[in-house]
Design goal:
The structure is a homodimer of 370-residue chains. Chain A is of the alpha/beta class and 370 residues long. Chain A has 3 domains: 5-48, lambda repressor-like DNA-binding domains (434 Repressor (Amino-terminal Domain), Orthogonal Bundle), CATH 1.10.260.40; 60-194 and 331-354, Rossmann fold (3-Layer(aba) Sandwich), CATH 3.40.50; 196-326, Response regulator (Rossmann fold, 3-Layer(aba) Sandwich), CATH 3.40.50. Chain A has helices at 5-12, 16-24, 31-44, 50-57, 73-87, 116-128, 146-158, 196-210, 225-240, 258-271, 283-295, 329-340, and strands at 62-67, 106-111, 133-137, 162-166, 189-194, 215-219, 251-253, 277-280, 305-307, 324-326, 351-354, 357-359. The first copy, chain A, has a 6-stranded parallel β-sheet, with helices on both faces. In chain A, strands 7-6-8-9 form a 4-stranded parallel β-sheet, with helices on both faces. In chain A, helix 5 links the parallel strand 1 (62-67) and strand 2 (106-111). Chain A is elongated, with a radius of gyration of 26 Å. The N and C termini of chain A lie far apart (80 Å). The relative contact order of chain A is 0.12. The structure holds a DNA duplex (30 and 30 nucleotides).
Chain lengths: 370, 370
DNA sequence: AGCCGGACGGAAAGCGCTTGCTACGGGGCA
DNA sequence: TGCCCCGTAGCAAGCGCTTTCCGTCCGGCT
């Protein structure tokens, strides 16, 4: 049926051990022999069986990248950057070892749809495949399955898989994996967090300095860490200026998509027709907010200022161009990729914070009457 | 080190065969025994070794989804729909068989960056892993590696992997896999093509009917099938109205991104300041075109009409909202997913064409002076 | 000329799981 | 009461590859 190592060996007139060595190039083989083997491989169109190899060698060249939503550019950018880095030949201890040209590994991105169960399922599947590494991106859901996920991650890491959290808070420092076991067995779970709190705070401060006093907030899904952090940043800014009470009730929750922004904006407007600015959960949501505003005959930023978050590529094309916080998504993804490949390490404690940068464009302006 | 089937068997006081059967649920096991085994699995936190399983059973639960660019919503939507369908429990011949809950398989999306070499690399990797299926999305590059890819695909299919082409032209009907072999060995390569030609033709006809006579065209990368097809549709429309000559030179090529659209539009404008409409390669490109137009002080659609293609989510938010051709991306992705899972079949010949639908919005209008 | 070590190639023992086949015990039927 | 068959469980043979030992051969050194 399918050709195996033995077939190649037979055709080349050598033992299968030799063929294996030629293919893996980690043992001296005479040029003469090598050539014959390679020709046999060609002739037979031989393709190694990755499973057999992984089983025998106890290594794998799969790296999982879990994202909340592939269709969302936020994750798309992150994933694509990480992916490129993972596929790239390793400079570290991986010279030519893996099947991929140059020692790179196969990055597989898994779409969880933001559901913890799906996350768990993929994590299990990846564990099954004995993946070389896993990158978990996007905010975590706070609640029920959190522990199950943390647990699974810890076990993955303990079993030798490199785990990187990107754009998600670090794992609670567990009580050190059931004592007894191997103290050297696993590697740490590395974290690359985004400074959501800081970014959100900058945004709101910017609005306040422009003169806004009644600022609405369209937040993300209630139970997600990212939502909470951005909200905290927002509130910190309000508190700093003694505005906490005034804007206290002006928060509406929704998903990270356009229609949620649309709906939430109308809700906010109904609740408080006098607001002069809206802080959106992210750029996509901001688009929805702007659309809703426009439908009500309100102009941005003349009547209401709007801010986004992330600075996705389309933000600059929106009308008006969005004031937002730029997250170095591409760079963060690449870094996560390097971390998971063991080609770079996090400074200390395995946790790094990625800062955002306030980008002021046309969607914010001073309120009409102060 | 890691716990194996044998460990579980020992703890449950049964043979490893029994444990395997409990886990796979395809052989009668007494409830009593099953329970004991499951408890042992729990206690030991046992995770099957996917590689060993795949090796022994000669099956895999990996399905590859190759896309040109994860960061592009076009592919994101396709991939996410396919993914959902693949993860879903199979209704067909896959009840509970695979490791994933409900018989779903692990969809791994691979980012090729549109490079044929990367495509080949991933295909090889997937072949190595003996993937259960592969979905190839996006336009193919016409040239050098085409044959190599077609070849690899044919071999993949012949070796039992289900192959689906989505949004890409069917494979040339090869001279039937080297005769001799198994006539029943592999399954056919299924194709789900988009009607790029038809869509593009509708768009251009729409413009012509509005009264446009000098229509520019910003096409995609020269060597891609999608580019060629859309261009052909465009030209067919022009020819139908005897406009082929007039607009003959008004084509500029570029990538499928915003900045290419921007650059190409300026180029076109320089070449022919009198044009009244521009057909863009897709929605993203259209955004760039509009930005360029605006910079030149031209209004859309008053001075110049612009059309996109695909109808990505943001198209309705653009100002002006884009006239475009809607491709049922989500549905197509889902269908591709079903095809690759063997849960659905293509009508006849293994090739299905997905039609686009003209969506008229605000970016097109009659030219100012006719 | 005899020895020794290095460079290569082969034999074979697994890696962890699936599965065909066999073994065994008990209930239903003749 | 004896026999057959069904419901279960175990044995053991692989699946295709890696890798540890060894054995062999040859060149160079003493």
């Amino acid at each position: 049926m399918t050709t195996t190592l033995a077939d190649v060996a037979a055709r080349a007139g050598v033992s299968s051990a030799t063929v294996s060595r030629v293919l893996n190039g980690n043992y001296p083989v005479a040029d003469h022999t090598r050539e014959r083997v390679l020709r046999a491989v060609e002739d037979l169109e031989y393709v190694v069986n990755g499973n057999a190899r992984a089983l025998a060698a106890a290594t794998s060249d799969l790296v999982g990248v879990l994202v909340n939503d592939v269709a969302d550019p936020f994750f798309g950018i992150l994933a694509s950057a990480a992916q490129a880095e993972i596929a790239r030949g390793g400079d570290a201890d991986e010279q030519g070892r893996a099947g991929a040209p140059g020692g790179g590994k196969l990055a597989v991105v898994c779409n969880t749809g933001g559901s913890p169960e799906a996350e768990l399922t993929y994590l299990t599947l990846l564990h099954r495949q004995r993946a070389a590494g896993v990158i978990l991106t996007g905010s975590a859901v706070e609640g029920s399955d959190t522990d199950a996920i943390a647990d699974r991650l810890a076990r993955l890491a303990a079993s030798g898989t490199r785990v990187v959290l990107c754009g998600r808070p670090p794992l609670p420092a567990g009580p050190f994996e059931e004592g007894a076991g191997e103290p050297e067995g696993g590697n740490p779970v590395m974290t690359l967090g985004f400074d959501n709190r800081g970014g959100a705070e900058q945004l709101t401060r910017h609005l306040i300095r422009l003169g806004h006093r009644r600022i609405g907030c369209v937040a993300g899904p209630v139970d997600r860490t990212t939502t909470r952090h951005r909200l905290e940043g927002h509130r910190n800014a309000l508190a700093a200026y003694g505005l906490a009470r005034e804007c206290g009730g002006l928060t509406a929750y929704g998903y990270y998509d356009r229609s949620s922004g649309h709906r939430a904006a109308r809700e906010l407007l109904d609740r408080c027709p006098g607001l002069t600015a809206i802080v959106a959960a992210n750029d996509t949501v901001a688009l929805g907010v702007i659309a809703a505003l426009r439908e009500r005959g309100l102009q941005v930023p003349r009547d209401v200022s709007v801010t986004g978050f992330d600075d996705l590529p389309f933000s600059v094309d929106a009308t008006p161009a969005l004031t937002t916080v730029r997250l170095p998504l591409h760079e963060a993804g690449a870094r996560a990729g390097r971390l998971v490949m063991g080609r770079e390490t996090t400074p200390g404690g395995g946790v790094a914070l990625v800062e955002g940068e306030l980008v002021i464009r046309e969607s914010t302006a001073p309120p009409r009457e102060s």
